[in-house]
Amino acid sequence: MQFATQSYDKSDIAATCYRHDGYPKVTPDLSFVPDFLKHLPFGVWIAEPRTGKPGKYNKAPRNPTTGMKVGVDKPYLFGKFADACTALLTGRYSGIGVVLDGSLVGIDIDDYSKQPSEVKSWVAGALLDGAYCEHSPSGDGLRLFISGSLPGSGRKVNGLEIYDDARFLTVTGEMYAGSGYDLIDGQGLIDEFLDLLPAATPPAPA
Question: How far is residue 193's CA from residue 9's CA, in Å, rounded to a whole number?
């Protein structure tokens, strides 16, 4: 297990992190963002309420230096992990995130406590295998990063999402109980997660 060499005071982040009506609930713990994520393009985001969806927020990626919104199809317009941390501490942003580049898989599980037993069993198995798992900004979901690939495009259904390329995913560093800290070879876990999704699940929108 290798922890970050740069230390960030979580109380400073909590004091400066921009929140909208208390969101995000989870304060990013930058000192515990795993090293294996730091080679990816990093951006920042602002909690932007979704029209007609109370309690839901858009998290459009922004360049950490300019604050301008950028698309995941242009990863070269993002920044580095250190850039995102510096930007977050200005108080203008709600959190940080990465753009997936095909080198690993990101899995998002919304409202984890309300997910069926099959999903919870899958998470338990992933933790036993040493997978890295963290709390999402809402505090209700989980995010896992695992080494492997998808046979096709990303998928999204019933609060379950999985991607490996051209997708912006938030990062909190707030590890879930029992989480590992390394990037494990988890192709088997990825395949099992895909089996939890309906066969006819369409590709997730970009």
Answer: 35
> Residues 137, 115, 53, 70: is their CA dihedral positive or negative?
positive
Angle separating helix axes 187-195 and 117-128, nearest 10 degrees: 180
Q: How far apart are CA 170 and CA 93, in angstroms?
A: 12
**CA pair distance 111, 97, nearest whole angstrom:** 20
Residue 1 has pLDDT above 50, yes or no: no
**Contacts made by residues 47-55, CB under 8 angstroms, sequence distance 24+:** 47/18, 47/19, 47/20, 47/23, 47/94, 47/95, 47/137, 48/20, 49/20, 49/21, 55/23
105-141 residue pLDDT tens: 999 999 999 999 999 999 999 999 999 999 999 999 9
- Model pTM? 0.92
